[in-house]
Design brief:
The chain is built from five helices and four strands. It has 158 residues and is an alpha/beta fold. Strands 1-2-4-3 form a four-stranded mixed β-sheet. Strand 1, helix 1 and strand 2 form a beta-alpha-beta unit. Helix 3 packs across helix 4 and helix 4 crosses helix 5. The longest helix has 17 residues. It is globular and about 45 Å long.
């Protein structure tokens, strides 16, 4: 399994994602991603600028690599996609804590579980998964559940 490093300046324990987030992903090099937490206005603005949707959303993903879903990530193919430490940079995930808190309440589970779910959802997008079609959605949900299960994050997780 590949090694993942997460750059996150917030007080958020990224170690479960670093240890389990690349379940089933093959790579011959270390990988990295950025995880950011923002307020509602900032994610609304990002959503409007990048997706043309002027509304608050829970998570946005900004993949750095194309065509990697289900394939071995070979460092030599991504010589110009490295972070400062020389790891292949997958991209950035931006989460709105306020929207996550609303959703946790709506879905009846903990904020912790919702934040981990959104981080994993974003990571799946960085790895090339999507949910535009029913088939893609099923595939992505299965990947999310695989990672969350490896992390021991269940729907009723505290």
């Amino acid at each position: 399994m590949a090694e993942l490093f997460i750059d996150c300046e917030e007080d958020f324990d990224v170690s479960p994602i670093e240890q389990n987030g690349l379940s089933g992903v093959e790579s011959d090099c270390a990988l990295s991603m950025e995880l950011l937490f923002v307020e509602e206005e900032e994610i609304r603005s990002l959503n409007a600028r990048t997706r043309g949707k002027d509304s608050v959303t829970d998570v946005l993903s900004f993949p750095n690599l194309d065509g990697i879903k289900g394939k071995k990530i070979e460092g030599k193919k991504f010589a110009f996609d490295r972070d400062d430490e020389g790891r292949v940079f997958l991209g950035s995930v931006v989460i709105c804590r306020a929207r996550a808190a609303q959703q946790a309440e709506e879905y009846g589970h903990s904020l912790r579980r919702e934040l981990y779910y959104l981080a994993v959802h974003g990571l799946c997008h960085l790895l090339g998964y999507d949910h535009e079609t029913d088939e893609e959605k099923q595939e992505m949900r299965a990947k999310e559940e695989e990672i969350l299960t490896a992390m021991n994050i269940t729907r009723d997780a505290e």
